[in-house]
Amino acid sequence: MPTQNSQPQTPNSTIRCSWAGSDPLYIKYHDEEWGKPVYDDQILFEFLILEGAQAGLSWITILRRRENYRKAFAGFDVNKVAAFTEKDVERLMNDEGIIRNRLKVNGAITNAKLFIEIRKEFGSFSKYMWSFVPGNKPILNQIEKMSDVPPRTELSDRISKDMKKRGFKFFGTTICYAYMQATGMVNDHLLNCCAR
Hints:
Helices cover about 50% and strands about 0% of the residues. It is an all-alpha fold. Helix 2 packs antiparallel against helix 7 (about 100-120). About 35% of the residues are buried. The model is unreliable at about 1-10 (pLDDT under 50). Keywords: DNA damage, DNA repair, Glycosidase, Hydrolase, Metal-binding, Zinc.
């Protein structure tokens, strides 16, 4: 997520978090998804794939490829992705619509298998993730300017550590915190943002 502090305003003077910029895709994502609580396992899996792909890149790079990822990764069906073979890896490595990084592709398949293991253990991936958050309710941070948004927290450290111990790939504390923002475990919208 970009960290500019200016607050761009659209012609109707709607105030948004500065990272939303003027790209309609980014604005739609900001207004309709970012910071909204997600309890649905399929959407949580989708963001697990997308955030892992995003490592080292800008979020808009992944957002613009989201539909390509949906096609490439079987509609984000965790069971299908977990069953991907080496032939699927080669198919994905030749897919210009996604980030063609073998470690990330293999990581996504590994993460799908581990996602299923967590569902078996906890009943759902959602129950597992939200169990880290007090009361299973979003943490509402008091963000006055985008520079107040942390890249990681003690909570993201703890979740990331647990997931890495379980074998998850591309889920360090910074990616974990971005995942928490994307799935509404934390709400980091500016206090005066229209999407808060």
